[in-house]
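During the no-cost extension, the postdoctoral fellow (Dr. R.K.) reprocessed legacy sequence entries with the updated structure-token encoder. One reprocessed record is reproduced below for audit purposes.
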Amino acid sequence: MVGTRRTLDGTRRSRVDSIVVEWLRECVEKHDCQGSTATLPSRVLDVSQSSEGGISLYVTDQEIEPYAALSHCWGGEVPMKTTTLNYEAQQNHIAVDDLPPNFKDAIEVTRRLGLRYLWIDALCIIQDDLSDWEVESREMSSIYGDAHLVIGADGAKGAEEGFLRDSPGYNSMHAGGKSALVAVVDDEQADVYVFECPEHYDTCSLLDKAILSEQYQDVVENPLSQRAWAFQEQLLAPRMVHFTKEEMVWECRSRYRCECTQFDDSRQRTSKDDWISGDTAKMGVQWYSFVNEVCVRQLTFKTDILPCLSGIAAQMEASMMGRYLAGLWEEDLLLGLTWSYKELQTRISPQQAPSWSWASLEGRGSPYWLLRQEWESIALKVPHAQILDAQCIPKGQNAYGAVSQGYIKMIAPFVRVEVMENHNAANEVNPSHWILKRLALERAVEVSEAGLQLPANADSHLSLDGHDFFYAVLIAEIACIKEEYIGPTEESEDSESDDSEYEPADDEQERKLWEGPSETFGLIIRERLAEESNRFERVGSFSEFARWNGESPFGNHKKQEVLNFFGAAQERTIMLL
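Re-encoded structure tokens follow.
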């Protein structure tokens, strides 16, 4: 392989001046990513060197000024943060020497880039004031979305590590090491080396962390990319510089750069225009991919699952998605209900979302599992239920955060079922897998005994002691969709004589939608309180394909068999809580 590569001389600290400053200058002057100024958050750190050896917490007056924001891993308890006790004192003076290395490094980068203001969550949010945290967390969309630059401490697993230090990972990026100088080009001021070409992974990819980590076991994951909160910080940032274990990486809405230049412009960044598109179906699927990504990442407090997406949700609600309903969307609600974890989960306590929301569970895994790498989209093919009304009441001051209560009122095919435990060949019970059975006497369609049963997945551990009445509700048939490029259109073919070198513009490309496997999906519900009739909670789901780690006692059901299970079922209006 022959190509250009930057020689990484000096220390990382010195290369901030020579590389990051140039990246930022190029973006501000040549790209259409964001203006140079924006409204300051309610509080920022004034890192100007007017006060000797210190900085201060500045309570703003909505001034229009550029600022940087830090995206980082706390790594446990942060040794310096703002509380109700030191809030007044922090506004006068904060000793930089008392700050952890990550904060010191962020201050140094901010100063080197010529910026005066810096936002760090631990210092700009009053940490022991729940009301202040709720107010500030709902502003994450503008805090990271309006920042002149987001500084990512990707390679540091905690505040005490720092991110400006050089690391062994740099050795493979230097022209030294396992390399030999073979030529010097004087008039170009360039050297030619031969060296072993190292694997160069996209360590700052925004999506598909779980897929990438499975494919590339030898990739050294950067701690920040494994954190749920960091996802929206990176997605919302108009421009961000990542200080990874390997090198510094730049991404903005126009360009992608890495320090050694091997990855320059080789990756298409997820643009805000892609997920604020005005197309409800497209935006819904994009949202489900965001949910999948956050659910496979680490979260210290499970109750933060909705707040850590609140900045993105705030951006999307202003579009055509309708009301935001505990992690789902009003205009795409039927499809949004078709989530299912492959493994048994635990209900979050205290409750953060209604039972019909994926956010009600401590999910580690992808709830929208059909959005796999080979399928680009899912679509609502045949609706069997109809949404009549839906409401959610926020638990605090963040309208996109935790929910105190909520309901969905729907009309759908509804049958009473017996829920039985599933035993494997060794007669062991798997609490994740259930068998639904409908009594033959209730059915108008005569089918075999096997046809009276459907495989189902439990959401969480639930005792099947026979005292609960369970019901199955048919929701919808959904389909997997893949879009493939099948060549230029006739018009574009005529416009160039050499087709082998012609790359048609996007609007000239002919594409074909391929429909993959479809799935008929439904919910398992039970009455929530005996004294409140027609009030139900979700406890599991079923489909024509049993997702039991490749095992099914029945084989794959066909769509007609699932529909037969609901033979003579009456449609009923229910309240799902």
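The chain has two domains: 12-167+200-271, 280-496+503-576. DSSP finds 14 helices and 24 strands in the chain. The remaining legacy entries will be reprocessed before the final report is submitted.
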